[in-house]
Design a protein that fits this description.
single chain; alpha+beta; Triger factor/SurA peptide-binding fold; Chitinase A, domain 3; 2 domains; 4-stranded antiparallel sheet; 3-stranded antiparallel sheet; 15% strand
């Protein structure tokens, strides 16, 4: 009886191992690195933990999103490691990034956020590594391209002067940034994105279609003062009410769809210098974002990606 028990115990262990081996398949090779099916499952869990609205998406859509997210992360990590020995971000700055994220998820304290991660079987080390890769990538883009950012300060000052009033208007915005090679297919692409927005959510569409780094958080940009926006974007938003979204707005190297999540009006003294600083920061970030997208596309072309 004892021998039979040992036999069945060994059999069950081996059977379980075989099932795990079968489930954990190599899905993608990126140069000499691999992405497995379990890696993709883990990425889906991570993305849906930080952006719960995508949990309602189909399994196929989620797997595509998880796969693309990992490919993007691996390519960025490989590029970063050309310039530094390891992924290592200043801890104080890292804590600020994590706090910013959990506040956006409506958690009051880090402990509340840690409990939420624990419940979703995500450890803080995983969060720290992913946030570090994204932050160091942004630092790399800044070091390479900040000198190429062109800001027309006189033009911005002129626009701010024209908008001088006692009421400040701010928008709580989300974005979807996408490219198309053939402009005649713009309407078709927009209809495809619009259908997902209307049938599921703007966040789901952002995670699926947006090429911006904000895609991982459902396209959320936070509060942006209208004085920081260029005239074209400002004019498009002025036509909309809360919970509405724009048609595609042409910007350098692509198209932008913006959603107004909320609108805030504040009566306060107009400070030209503060508004100018906000406008410069917004325009700088917009241009650096375009440099980031273009640079990523460039390095991706030199990497061998095989889907198995």
């Amino acid at each position: 009886m004892k021998k039979n028990l040992i036999f069945w115990t060994i059999y069950l262990i081996l059977s379980s191992s075989n099932v795990i081996a079968l489930e954990n398949k190599i899905i993608i090779k990126i140069d000499n690195e691999i992405i497995t099916s379990l890696d993709i499952d883990r990425e889906i869990k991570y993305l849906s933990t930080l952006n719960p609205s995508i949990k309602s998406l189909s399994k196929d859509r989620l797997r595509l999103i998880g796969k693309n997210s990992l490919i993007k992360e691996k390519i960025k990590e490989k590029e970063i490691l050309k310039y530094m020995k390891e992924i290592n971000l200043d801890q104080k700055f890292l804590k600020e990034l994590i706090k910013d994220r959990y506040v956006k998820l409506n958690f009051n304290t880090e402990n509340d956020f840690l409990e939420y991660l624990k419940f979703n079987q995500i450890n803080m080390g995983e969060i720290e590594k992913k946030f570090s890769i994204e932050a160091i990538w942004n630092q790399l883009i800044y070091s390479k391209f900040s000198s190429q950012v062109k800001i027309n300060k006189i033009d911005l000052e002129k626009k701010i002067k024209e908008r001088n009033n006692l009421t400040n208007k701010s928008y709580l915005l989300s974005e979807i940034f996408f490219n198309i090679n053939d402009r005649t297919k713009l309407q078709k692409k927009y209809n495809e994105i619009k259908q997902v927005i209307e049938n599921e959510s703007f966040e789901s569409a952002a995670v699926t279609y947006s090429r911006s780094d904000s895609a991982t958080v459902g396209g959320k940009l936070g509060w942006i003062n209208e004085n920081s926006l260029n005239n074209n974007i400002r004019a498009n938003l002025a036509k909309l009410n809360k919970e509405n979204f724009t048609k595609p707005i042409f910007i350098s190297s692509g198209y932008l769809i913006l959603k107004i999540n909320d609108i805030k009006l504040e009566k306060k003294k107009f400070d030209k210098n503060i508004e100018l600083k906000k406008s410069i920061n917004y325009e700088t970030n917009q241009q650096l974002s375009q440099f980031s997208i273009n640079y990523f596309k460039k390095i991706k072309k030199n990497i061998i990606i095989n889907e198995l």
